[in-house]
Amino acid sequence: MKNNTAIPGLPHHQSPRSRREFLARAGGGFGAVAATYLLNHSALGDTLSKLQAPVADPLNPLAARQPHYAPTARNVIFVFLEGGPSHLDLFDPKPLINQLAGKPAPDSFVGNLITAMGESHSPLLACKRQWARYGQSGLWMSDWIPHHREIADDIAVIRSCVSDGLNHSGGVCQMNTGSILAGRPSLGAWVTYGLGTENQNMPAFCVLTDSNTQVINGPRNWGAGFMPAIYQGTKLNGESPSPISNLMTPASVGDARQHAKLSLLQSLNEEHERSHPDLSELDARIRSYELAFHMQAQAPEAVDLTSESAATRALYGMDEKPTATMGRMCLLARRMVERGVRFVQLYSGAGSKWDAHSHIEKNHTELCAQMDKPVVGLIKDLKSRGLLDDTLVIWGGEFGRTPMSEKGDGRDHNPTGFTMYMAGGGVKGGKTIGATDELGLRAVEDRLHVHDLHATVLHLLGLDHTRLTYFHKGRPERATMNEGEIYRRITTA
Amino acid sequence: MAMRHFSRRKWPGLVIVWIGFAALPARPAPTTDVPAEHARFFETKVRPLLAENCQSCHGEKKQKGGLRLDSPEALAKGGKDGPVIVPGRPAESKLITAVSYHDKDLQMPPDDQLSAAQVDILTQWVSMGAPWGTTAGAQTSSAKVSRKRVITDEDRRFWSFQAPRDVTPPDVADGGWSRNAIDHFVYAKLASEGLSPAPRADKETLVRRACFDLHGLPPTPEEIDQFVKDPAPDAWEKLVDRLLASPRYGERMARPWLDLVRYAESDGYKADAYRPNVWPYRDYVIKSFNDDKPYDRFLQEQLAGDEIAPDDPNVLIGVEFFRNGIYEYNQRDVKKHWQNILDEMTDVTADAFLGLSMGCAKCHDHKFDPILQSDYYRLEAFFAPMLPVQDGVVATTEAKATYDEALKTWQAKTADIRAELERIERPFIEKTANAALIKFPQEIQDIVNKPKAQRTPYEEQIATLATRQLYDKMEAGEAKVTGPEKERHLELVRKLAEFDGIKPKPLQTSLLVTDVGRTPPPTYVPGGPHDKPLDAGYPVVLDRLPLDKPAAEPTAGTTGRRTALAKWLTQPDHPLTTRVAVNRVWQFHFGRGLVGTASDFGRLGDRPSHPELLDYLARSFVRNGWSFKQLHRLIMTSATYQQASNRVMPAEAKSRDPENRLLWKYPARRLDAEQIRDAMLLVSGELKLDGAGGPSVDPANPRRSVYTRVVRNNRDPLLEVFDVPDTFGSAADRNHTTTATQALLMINGDAPLKHAEMFAKRLGALNLPPAQTVATAWRLAYGRAPSQKDLKLATQFLTGSPAHQGSPNAATPVARSIDEKPLVKAMPQLGSQAIYIRNARPDDMLRLPAPIGMPTEDLTVEAYVLLDSIYDDASVRVIASQWDGKNDHAGWSLGVTSAKSKYEPQNLILQLACDAGQAGGGKGGYEVIPSDFRIELHKTYYVAVSMKLRDTTAAGITFYLKDIGDMDAPLKTASVTHTLTAPHNNDRPLIIGGRDGKPAHGWDGLIDEVRVSRKALARGDLLYTDGRPPESALCGHWVFEDQPGIFKDTAGVQRDLVKQITGGRSSSVSAGIDPALVDLCHVLLNSNGFLYVD
Questions:
Q1: Which residues contact A461 (CB under 8 A, 6 or more apart)?
Q2: Is the CB of A169 less than 8 angstroms away from the CB of B743?
Q3: Interval B156-186: pLDDT, tens
Q4: Helix and strand tally (H, E) in chain A?
Q5: Which of A359, A310, A384, A344 has the alpha carbon at shortest distance from A73?
Q6: Which pLDDT tens digits describe chain A residue by residue (493 residues)?
Q7: Same domain, A41 and A81
Q8: Looking at the domain assignment, is residue A424 inside a domain?
Q9: Would the CB atoms of A213 and B1042 count as touching at under 8 Å?
């Protein structure tokens, strides 16, 4: 899996000295070192050392690190359905909605609910789906996702997700970072910080989107927040032979000149380093150019699908127009985790396309058709290759949708109760977790707030969310913002 | 602010729809097994709520109505009329009825209605089956919900809560090393650990260090010579003074301050709307540093400029500080939104000025620091009276008077027109406003609908925040006049526009604040008791300072609280303010403060490495009139600062101080993102050092980075990859990461390559022999001469590198990253998808390769556009063209003029080149037809030109312009004569956003919905008026939406566009420059010698 073959002509550089030596020689400047030092020397060191912030190797901050305890998952693929898919029309049937359709929801359900578009007292919108139970476990699914029937026994459907984000911006931000307010590291960044990556020649955290439309909030959804930028996600262009920005040598320069330049750069940097003893960052920077060119060798191969069989492409729906884009993204996701990429996030409906305030029939019919087969293909493919055992697949959006109608034929945002599912990575498939009330408005049983979901994801990766901390502004910050409980039953029947 | 022709007002008479109550369905009985998350919900949300709001009457002491609400048993038993809850059925539960205040005979608590959120918590709880924790024997439940933390004397004794002391520098036997007092402290500490300082750095190193520190730029060869060749003993002092006196100093110093106050120019939410009027604050910060404004004054102006000197625009602008936070344009939970805004202001004030991280205390007493939760909200109470002002005028009294005078004249002459306009528009505006208002919860609607006089101060704040969303709707032009009076309306708009000549130019505005009035709204700890509001006050651990009570004197219209806070903070012996400030300056010079955690002087923060030195600096800072420049001078003239950085670590340091906290050498550092960009621009000769400030520019523009746009959700890739902070919160320092992404950007990215080309062009123009070229390059990039080895390497590279024989090497072409789809963005105000062209980048443009059937004589070109910048020269920002730019080649081009155009900048023009030799004849030649419409930057416009080629009267060419952001703006028209009458037929491609051929005149910004017609369209046929030309005249209509496709011609004529593919990076400078020299320059910009400062 690992490709360490140097590009011919690339000057070789001695690998850096030991970490211990580095620490002895460090001139400061790297946050993690400072934090470590602080932990060991502060008056509160004893208290705080219990918090066990991971110690990143300053010369190789992405080096793979041991989790806190034995994980059941090593990688994550998060399929993010941006805009908020309707749980009421996919996984969470509510006959009462159809019984009361056209009337306002009873006050007992609505309470003082605030919705984004003020639809809390609008008439209930009937669900037009056909429902049935599938798999040995009898999971409920609607006819909008027929392919999902095949994986009913592989997925754990969580019907009781809860978020604080009333709008897309806050919702997407919280599902990614734990907070509806910007500024915190994304879950993928936390995982990368906690575990590093198995493959230094690919970004540890990759993001793919299904269109050029910007995802709500932009790149900060996969940002590192207050942590160093090295932990942030890298958006890949899965359609291009040059999937990472600035990956390829410009044609106007060409390989021969590029190698001549790198060789000169190497010489100048080594000369500079000789006159700067004890400045280890200089080593790291020299190495960063080597890494960049290993990446140049490996990333195009990772996105090159020519070696994939026709059967595999068909499994992902790449041979049919509606599913071609998502199919390609899902197949790329499999190839990423095969290559040791730690965290992959796929955006379906980039730019809030799932946001069916009106015409939900048309909107969800199209988007479900784009998503259904590729995601199922991914899970089946991972399973048949034995990758599902240690790859956690997460499916969901920033919130669900209201039973109340909007504009006559749409549904408003519903963060108080919605559905996500997980598969693989130790998750016990074929079960339904939690419940919403009889209108699907609020989660009432086994409520799993976003913090609980994040704690659970970290747990599956062998990371204790109470111990995975990063020092920022004098506070040991956690991915779960000092909240969150692990839902341990997710791994058991 | 009376720029609109009718004032903002509130919208009365909104319809309230009461939703009826429907029958409740049966549901299964709740389970007796309480899941953990239910228990947690009860413990964290319900139990405190019951304890604080209910149990005083329904608990151990009193049992009104026989009801107790302090144990599960009591709850099950209920009151004298039986149980008050039915588990799982909130609608049947009396408790919920009572707290909802729906039944006027049953309202609890009787005096203090619960908030909507609290009612919601209880409703959810009952829905869950009313679980009561996991513990049995709930008799103890009315026990304290939170243990009160007490501030002890020991807490108060913590070092940073003591006033700085006057310290005498220790005597040291340093053999004459010390140059000033700083060195005494440093030397003493070093000596105590068996360490000694490093020797002084050489003069080249020192001048480079000083220039990067104080100007953020490398020294020019002249600056180097001036210092290095100056034999005077005070040459260094003179250099420092010279640097401090330059305007470059303020541009550099502003940067860390702007990080600290999370300065950015966009909202940071989904819409991420650009804030075109916040740059005056950035200029204010720059100017304050350049003027060496005393820090106490600087602080006071930012916290309370509106109270201190409301009429002085140079002071007033300081309070924009509060407005740098994020804002969500469509948040219906207005109360929570306002709370978030207040919290954010509290956090940033604590971080930036107080140097205490108080965020923990937002939810509970601080676990590690002696900060109480009530401390947090008492600090917040200083800001709680605040009212945001959207269009705050920052102008002098004279300017305002002149403006008002002119406005009065305009108003008098247009009174009738405006009155009629208002009459026609009012119903449409009210409709729009009502449609927006009903999306809010009823409670918020009620507040908005209340007459202003009846609103409490808090309600006024809530109403203001909610109403802003209504205004935004109206400003987005959603209140469009339709129906029978549409024509009359257009006519009036036109008539009003005739008076534009006497309408005064709007005054500069910015985002400001004031208070809601002299009476503050009450502040409570959220979820805490509401019996007594909190006073504004200081953290208890610090409240023994002389000013122990906020001496807030209400001003004419404000509470005066912020002035009180500013005065408290700027007491000369405040334990935190001055220490925090001088420590930031120390960090600025040494990469790390004496306290390593610059915004956290609490217990979890770092301890000072040199506490006495910190106090000494704090005291002398105050003695020197809170002068930053004096402080820089003191630090930089120390021997400590002037040490060499390239010292081998002494054995003692390995064991005692591997981190160099004691400063046994000067710490070499990687440059910050802005320093890297600015340095590349300076050495390449591109940097424009105008120092003029003003609106921010795209990073493609060679101005200093401090003047480039800061859009929160869309950062400049170069700055981002080198760790600029995310601007969502206060940032006290920068990360300095080293990543492969940086390497890729520096070696393959467009911007560094372009700088390398410009650098090479600059060197090439000198026509020097290779060795001298290398020496000059070294001097520019590194500020020194090359070593013999470097000289040899580089000269060989220039003259004998096989890679450059017959280059560029085309034998092994490597695919460039070519995105299939163009860049798109949402068009502000319209929300539709627009194509995004970044500073005339050819790869961003779209083209119609075979322009068959395009106009040859008459034409109409229409588009929605938003312009981000203009060129510095006379180039044209082209919207659409079918022309190669050569005056003797036929064609046309619609665009906007730039800085040096003789038609004045930002003028919408049509360029016409007609060929008399073409069939039909007529007058040929080249002609510019100016509309004299001014296109302002960052605004959304509809623009159009329609031309009847053979009609050379004023009726021949008409331009149309509509400012989409200003609903009051009319669709303006301008009729202009022209002289050419011959056809402009040509076979060039139609290009959206640019022009065929070189140099590439091109757009910078957004273009949406382009329509081209072979006919001079009448007003009613225009896109803006929802008109359509006859099918036969329609040449193409491109809307750039994903459906039916970004490239698709929606006119159905199948004139689909393609992406402009230039086959490699276009470069106007590479021709004629030695590629080996370009490559050498590029290597220098990538090298560690360039990116690090010693």
A1: A67, A71, A73, A74, A76, A191, A194, A195, A392, A425
A2: no
A3: 889 999 999 999 999 999 999 999 999 999 9
A4: 13, 17
A5: A344
A6: 333 333 333 333 333 333 333 333 333 333 333 333 333 333 343 444 444 455 566 667 888 999 999 999 999 999 999 999 999 999 999 999 999 999 999 988 988 888 888 888 899 999 999 999 999 999 999 999 999 999 999 999 999 999 999 999 999 999 999 999 888 999 999 999 999 998 888 999 999 999 878 899 888 899 998 888 889 999 998 777 778 889 988 888 888 899 999 999 999 999 999 888 878 788 888 888 988 888 888 888 999 999 999 999 999 999 999 999 999 999 999 999 999 999 999 999 999 999 999 999 999 999 999 999 999 999 999 999 999 999 999 999 999 999 999 999 999 999 999 999 999 999 999 999 999 999 999 999 999 999 999 999 999 999 999 999 998 877 789 999 989 999 999 999 6
A7: no
A8: yes
A9: yes
Please give the DSSP secondary-structure letter assigned to residue B266: B
Q: Are residues A181 and A225 in the same domain?
A: yes
A226 and A375 both lie in a single domain: yes
The domain of A413 spans 75-244+303-491
Same domain (yes/no): A82, A41: no
In a domain, A6, yes or no: no
**Contact with chain A for residue B201, Cβ under 8 A:** no
Best of A41, A202, A261 to mutate (most B CBs within 10 Å, chain B): A261
Q: What angle do CA B181, B186, B188 make, to 5 degrees?
A: 100
Mutate to test the interface with B, among A97, A112, A226 (most CBs of B within 10 A): A112
Cross-chain residue pair B748–A262, CB shorter than 8 Å: no
For residues A29 and A142, membership in a common domain is answered with no
Q: Would the CB atoms of A254 and B726 count as touching at under 8 Å? A: no
Give CA–CA dist B1012/B1036, Å, rounded: 5
pLDDT in tens, B144-153: 334 567 788 8
* B161: CB partners within 8 A, 6+ apart: B155, B541, B542, B575, B576
For B1094, the closest chain A residue by CA position comes to A276
Q: What is the ipTM of this complex?
A: 0.79
Contacts of A39 in chain B (CB under 8 A): none
Residue A56 counted as domain residue: no
Residues A204 and A171 in one domain: yes
**What are B1027's two structure tokens?**
């008109």
Residue A241 in contact with residue A304, Cβ under 8 Å? yes
Query: Which own/partner pairs from A6-9 qualify as long-range (CB within 8 Å, at least 24 positions apart)?
Result: A6/A290, A6/A294, A7/A259, A7/A293, A7/A294, A7/A296, A7/A297, A9/A255, A9/A259, A9/A263
Task: Say how far apart CA B855 and CA B797 lie, in whole Å.
Answer: 54
Query: Alpha-carbon distance A396 to A84, whole Å?
Result: 8
The number of folded domains in chain A is 2
Q: For residue A20, what are its two tokens? A: 């211990």
A234 plus A354 within the same structural domain: yes
Would you call A255 and B660 a contact, using CB atoms and an 8 Å cutoff? no
Residue of B346, B748, B792, B846 to mutate, testing the A interface (most A Cβ within 10 Å of its Cβ): B748
CB contact under 8 A, A248 and B814: yes
For A121, nearest residue in chain B (alpha carbons): B19
Q: CATH number, domain at A194?
A: 3.40.720
Select the residue of B728, B745, B812 nearest A255 (Cβ to Cβ).
Answer: B812
Report CA torsion sign: A422, A425, A430, A435. Answer: negative
- Please indicate, yes or no, whether residues A42 and A96 belong to a single structural domain of this protein: no
Which chain A residues touch B667 with a CB distance below 8 Å? 27-29
In a domain, A127, yes or no: yes
Q: Mind listing the pLDDT tens digit for each residue in A410-429?
A: 999 999 999 999 999 999 99
Task: Give the CA count within 13 Å in the CB-facing half-sphere of B110.
Answer: 6
B173-189 in b/e burial notation, b at 16+ Cβ within 10 A?
A: ebeebbbebbbbbbbbb
